[in-house]
C-alpha cells in the first residue's frame, strides 16, 4: 500500500520545470507548483475540486481518527464527557472508541500512569497498527502532574512513547481535548507521503514496536526509552 | 513408557479414570482443576479481565476462573492507579492536601473535601458558620445526584444499553458541573471547602440557578425511570444477580447504598447527624433482596430524597458569613492528637483519619475509601454467576479507581 501510494504521489506531482505558467497568474507557492491557492479557491467556488493524492489521503484519515477506549484516571471522565451529547466528539469523526487496540488509531493517555501500569500502556501502544498517534492528556500524563513526587508515578508517558500532542490541565476540559484533536488533525494533514518528512508508518527504518519496560526492584527497567526521550541537559550556572 | 522409573506422570495422564458421576466442586479446598474429563465439563479457564477492559471502570483487574461461563473464583488485582496519596498527604501541609482529596474519588470532589475538612476541624476544634454548613449540604447533595446519575448511566452501559442512558446521564451531569464551575471555578476538581467554612459564597444568581435545576430534576428522573426502571431486559439481567446478604455486608464493613440495598438501616446522615442534617426531613430508602436491581433502585430513590433535602436547604439557607473569622487556614498547626472525620458520601462512608504531632504536616494521613471496602465482597457476590453478570455486579458496586488504589 505504502509503495503504491508513494509512486502515485510521485506521478501526480510533476516537476516544477514542466509546469505551464500563465503570465497573469500570481506567483505559485512551492507546495503546489501547478496552480496557486487563489486559483484553486476560485475553482472550488465554481464547483471544481483539484487535489493531490497526498492531500485527499491525509484529509480522509484525519477525519476518522478512532481513539482507543482506554481510561486511566480522572481525565478519562472528561474524555467520556467529550464523547457525550454536549461536546460531541463525533463532529470531528472520532466518536468510534474502540475497545481493542488492534482497531484504534489514537491512544489518549488520559490520566496518571503509574509504574505498575506503564508496561501495559506501552504494550497497548505496540498492539496498535500504524499509522498511530498518541495524545498525552492532562498534567499527569505529561509530567506526573500533582503526583510527580510520588514513588509510584511515572514522570510523563513521553519517556516511553512518542507523544504527538500534549494537552495541559488537571483535568483538561473537554473543549481542550477537542482542541488537541484538531491540532492532531492539522498535523496529520501536513504529513508527507514521500521523502525524509514521511511519517513513521511510511518509513522502513523506524521501529513499530517500542521496548516494554519491566517492573524492576526499585524502578522501571529501563527507566526511559532513550530513542524517544533524553534527560534535559543540566542547567548552566552563571559564573559568579 | 519407562516402567522402571517408578511412577510416571505421563502414565497417569494417559489413562484417565472417568468417574461415574461428577464430583462436587469444592472451592473451599482450593481446588484449581476438577478432575473431570467429559465433553460438557472441561478444565477450568482463567481469564484476566483488565487492567484495560471497557467495563472495569478504570484500571481494575479481575482474575476470573471460569467453569464454562460460571465464575468459580475471582481474584481482584489492585494498584494500577496507586498514586501515593497518603504518603503525599504526610509530606504536605494540611491545606495543601485539600486539592489532592479532589482526585481521590474524582466524580465526587465536594464530598471528599467536606470529609477532609471535617477531620481537620475536629482536630483543630474549629467551628463552622451556619451558612457554610447549609452550602456544604447543598453541594454534597448535588454531588450525590451527580454520582448516582452517572452510576445509573454506566450500569445501563454495562448491561448492554449502549449509548442512550449514558447520554442522558451525562447531559444532566453537565448541568450540575455548570453549577460547580460557576461557584468554585472548576468543573471536576472543585477544591471548595476550607477548615472553618467554604472558599466562595454563593451568589443569589447561583442560588436561583440551583433552584431551577432542582425543580426540573424530578422531571428528568421520571423520564429516566419511564425509560429504564420497568424495563424487562434490565429486570431479567439484574434481579437475583449478585445477591449480598445483610450479615456478610455488615461483617465486611460495607457502607452506603450497597449496605442499604441489603435492608440494613445505616445512613451516617441519620446516625452521626453531622452538619445540619438533623434539621432536614428525609427518608432512608432500604432494599429488600440485596441484588443488583435493588442497588440500582436505592440510588434512584436516594436521588429523590436528595431533591427533597435540596429544596429544604435552599429554602432555609441563612444569611451570614461563610467563614469563621478566627479560622486559621494557612500554616495550620493543630495540637497533638488524632481525629477521624467521616460523612456519608455518595458511595458510602468516606473518612479521613489524621494524627497530628503539632507540626504543619500531619504525622499520619489515612483515607477510609468507601468503594475499596465495598469491593472486598465482589467475589462473594460473583460466585456462581456468569461472566456477563460479573460486569454488572462490578458496575453496581460503584467503584472509582482513584479512591480504590489511592
How would you describe the overall organization of this protein?
The complex is a heterodimer of chains A (240) and B (406). Chain A is mainly alpha-helical and 240 residues long. Chain A is built from seven helices and five strands, in the order H-H-H-H-E-H-E-H-E-H-E-E. In chain A, the strands form two sheets. A three-stranded parallel β-sheet of chain A has the order 1-2-3. A two-stranded antiparallel ribbon of chain A has the order 4-5. In chain A, helix 5 (118-127) links the parallel strand 1 (106-110) and strand 2. The relative contact order of chain A is 0.13. Chain B is built from 16 helices and eight strands. Chain B has a three-stranded antiparallel β-sheet with strand order 1-2-3. Chain B is α+β, with helices and mostly antiparallel strands. Chain B has helices at 9-14, 85-91, 97-102, 109-124, 130-159, 164-184, 204-228, 232-238, 246-251, 257-261, 268-271, 292-316, 370-375, 378-382, 387-397, 401-405; strands spanning 45-49, 61-67, 70-77, 193-194, 197-198, 337-344, 349-356, 362-368. In chain B, helix 4 packs antiparallel against helix 5 (130-159) and helix 5 runs antiparallel to helix 6. Chain B has a single domain (85-405), classed as Cytochrome-c3 Hydrogenase, chain B (Orthogonal Bundle), CATH 1.10.645.10. Chain B is globular. Classes of the chains: A mainly alpha (240), B alpha+beta (406).
Amino acid at each position: 500500500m505504502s509503495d503504491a501510494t508513494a509512486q502515485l504521489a510521485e506521478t501526480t506531482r510533476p516537476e516544477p520545470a514542466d509546469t505551464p505558467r500563465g503570465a497573469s497568474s500570481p506567483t505559485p507557492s512551492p507546495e503546489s507548483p501547478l496552480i496557486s491557492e487563489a486559483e484553486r479557491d476560485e475553482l472550488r467556488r465554481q464547483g471544481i475540486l483539484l487535489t493531490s493524492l497526498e492531500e485527499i489521503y491525509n484529509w480522509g484519515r484525519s477525519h476518522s481518527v478512532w481513539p482507543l477506549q482506554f481510561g486511566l484516571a480522572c481525565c478519562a471522565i472528561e474524555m467520556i464527557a467529550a464523547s457525550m451529547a454536549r461536546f460531541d466528539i463525533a463532529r470531528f469523526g472520532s466518536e468510534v472508541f474502540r475497545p481493542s487496540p488492534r482497531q484504534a488509531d489514537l491512544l489518549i493517555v488520559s490520566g496518571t500512569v503509574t509504574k505498575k501500569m506503564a508496561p501495559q500502556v506501552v504494550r497497548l501502544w505496540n498492539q496498535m497498527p500504524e499509522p498511530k498517534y498518541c495524545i498525552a492528556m492532562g498534567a499527569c500524563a505529561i509530567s506526573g502532574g500533582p503526583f510527580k513526587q510520588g514513588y509510584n508515578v511515572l514522570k510523563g508517558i513521553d519517556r516511553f512513547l512518542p507523544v504527538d500532542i500534549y494537552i495541559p490541565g488537571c483535568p483538561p476540559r473537554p473543549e481542550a481535548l477537542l482542541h488537541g484533536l484538531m491540532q492532531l488533525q492539522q498535523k496529520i494533514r501536513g504529513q508527507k507521503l514521500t521523502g525524509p518528512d514521511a511519517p513513521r508508518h511510511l518509513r522502513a527504518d523506524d521501529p513499530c514496536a517500542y521496548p516494554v519496560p519491566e517492573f524492576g526492584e526499585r524502578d522501571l527497567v529501563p527507566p526511559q526509552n532513550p530513542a524517544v526521550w533524553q534527560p534535559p541537559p543540566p542547567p548552566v550556572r552563571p559564573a559568579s | 513408557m519407562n516402567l522402571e522409573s517408578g511412577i510416571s506422570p505421563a502414565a497417569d495422564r494417559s489413562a484417565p479414570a472417568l468417574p461415574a458421576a461428577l464430583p462436587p466442586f469444592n472451592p473451599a479446598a482450593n481446588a484449581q482443576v476438577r478432575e473431570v474429563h467429559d465433553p460438557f465439563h472441561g478444565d477450568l479457564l482463567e481469564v484476566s479481565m483488565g487492567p484495560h477492559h471497557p467495563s472495569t471502570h478504570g484500571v481494575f483487574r479481575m482474575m476470573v476462573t471460569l467453569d464454562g461461563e460460571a465464575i468459580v473464583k475471582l481474584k481482584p488485582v489492585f494498584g494500577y492507579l496507586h498514586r501515593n496519596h497518603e504518603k503525599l498527604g504526610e509530606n504536605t501541609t494540611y491545606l495543601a492536601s485539600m486539592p489532592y482529596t479532589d482526585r481521590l474519588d474524582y466524580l465526587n470532589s465536594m464530598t471528599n473535601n467536606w470529609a477532609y475538612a471535617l477531620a481537620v476541624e475536629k482536630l483543630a476544634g474549629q467551628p463552622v458558620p451556619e451558612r457554610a454548613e447549609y452550602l456544604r449540604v447543598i453541594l454534597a447533595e448535588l454531588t450525590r445526584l451527580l454520582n448516582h446519575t452517572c452510576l445509573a448511566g454506566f450500569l445501563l452501559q454495562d448491561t448492554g444499553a449502549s449509548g442512550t442512558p449514558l447520554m442522558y446521564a451525562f447531559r444532566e451531569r453537565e448541568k450540575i458541573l455548570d453549577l460547580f464551575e460557576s461557584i468554585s471555578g472548576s468543573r471536576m476538581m472543585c477544591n471548595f471547602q476550607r477548615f472553618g467554612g467554604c472558599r466562595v459564597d454563593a451568589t443569589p444568581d447561583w442560588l436561583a440557578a440551583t433552584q431551577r435545576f432542582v425543580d426540573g430534576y424530578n422531571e428528568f428522573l421520571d423520564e429516566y425511570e419511564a425509560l429504564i426502571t420497568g424495563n424487562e431486559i434490565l429486570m431479567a439481567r439484574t434481579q437475583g444477580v449478585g445477591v449480598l446478604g445483610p450479615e456478610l455486608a455488615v461483617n465486611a464493613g460495607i457502607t452506603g447504598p450497597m449496605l442499604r440495598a441489603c435492608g440494613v438501616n445505616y445512613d451516617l446522615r441519620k446516625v452521626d447527624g453531622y452538619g445540619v442534617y438533623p434539621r432536614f426531613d428525609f427518608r432512608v430508602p432500604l432494599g429488600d433482596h440485596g441484588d443488583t436491581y435493588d442497588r440500582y433502585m436505592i440510588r434512584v430513590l436516594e436521588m429523590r430524597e436528595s431533591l427533597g433535602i435540596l429544596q429544604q436547604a435552599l429554602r432555609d439557607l441563612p444569611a451570614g458569613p461563610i467563614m469563621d473569622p478566627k479560622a486559621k487556614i494557612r500554616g495550620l498547626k493543630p495540637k497533638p492528637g488524632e481525629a477521624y472525620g467521616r460523612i456519608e458520601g455518595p458511595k458510602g462512608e468516606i473518612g479521613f483519619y489524621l494524627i497530628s504531632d503539632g507540626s504543619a504536616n500531619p504525622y499520619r494521613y489515612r483515607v477510609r475509601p468507601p468503594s475499596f471496602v465495598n469491593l472486598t465482597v465482589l467475589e462473594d457476590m460473583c460466585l456462581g454467576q456468569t461472566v456477563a453478570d460479573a460486569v454488572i455486579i462490578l458496575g453496581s458496586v460503584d467503584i472509582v479507581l482513584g479512591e480504590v488504589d489511592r
